[in-house]
Amino acid sequence: MHTAVVFYFSGTGNTWWVADRIIRRLDMSNINATAVSVDTVTPKKADWWIKTADLVLFGWPVYGSDLPEPMKRFLGALPKLEKSKHVHVFCTQMGFSGDGAWLAHQWLAEKGLIIDTAQHFTMPSNMSMMRGFFGTPDENRVKKIMASAETQVDGYVERLLTNTARIQGRFSAMLGMLQRVPFRLYRKKARRLFNADAALCTRCGLCESLCPMRNITIKDAPEFADRCAFCLRCYSFCPANAIAYKGRIRDAAKYGKPYSVPDKRFKPLLLIKQI
Length: 275
Ligand SMILES: Cc1cc2nc3c(=O)[nH]c(=O)nc-3n(C[C@H](O)[C@H](O)[C@H](O)COP(=O)(O)O)c2cc1C
What we know:
Layout: E1 3-8, H1 14-28, E2 32-37, H2 43-52, E3 55-61, H3 69-77, E4 85-93, H4 105-109, E5 113-122, H5 139-161, H6 173-187, H7 190-193, E6 194-196, H8 206-210, E7 216-218, E8 222-224, H9 233-237, E9 243-245, E10 248-249, H10 252-255
Parallel strand pairs: 1-2, 1-3, 3-4, 4-5
Antiparallel strand pairs: 6-9, 7-8, 9-10
Bound molecules: flavin mononucleotide.
The site of flavin mononucleotide (FMN) has 24 residues, from helix 1 and strand 4.
């Protein structure tokens, strides 16, 4: 095995972190590995990577045990392979995602891609607009989760290289559905859930550039159309804290710090940087 490619979508950096650690570990085994944000690659270029790489992986954060819309769109736009290829999928989650990774077999099979292994990685919750169990944990807890994530990823890469990785969550479709069905309904309301405070907004344009759905247009303040994927980039990375969820702006003292993966190398623009 000589080359590998990891296609990933990431809202707030967790999945970027996992993809990055996977390629670093593969590099250590002399495999030339590249992580590619799906925001930055055309279907034609992705097709080329898929055909030429020895090892192909896809990763995303689970949203209500579902794939994020940008990942579905990316998979949907891939050309169908003439000769099928075996691939690996993973997702990042805060705790539970049923069949969150395996679920992609529906989209991948249509493109001639067969899932060999599926893996769930537990990362800190990025839902910094929520309090309590579902919200972002405190700093100490985040450190513990990240330490365990390092072990999880390293073990996974080891299993990939020794052909001992397996399909996680394959028989958890019912449990996944319990989260997926209500989440899909809730997501439809997302247009009404996020808005921007015109008085705070500096019209820097970062939210518009980062939005994977082209759902934001800056006028007096950012205006939202109805394609929100719920990735939380605008909410988490607005430098002026001007984006509100359910009318509440991001008040760090009241709602905790906005989430971004605790790795100093992470910058939101990495997610949309053309390679
Ligand atoms: C809208 C939304 C829905 C989520 N649903 C789930 C879920 O069903 N199960 C879970 O364990 N984590 C869930 N999470 C947590 C994220 O999947 C998790 O924190 C992920 O690592 C974030 O990755 P990212 O930083 O790459 O976007 C959800 C997060 C968001 C924003």
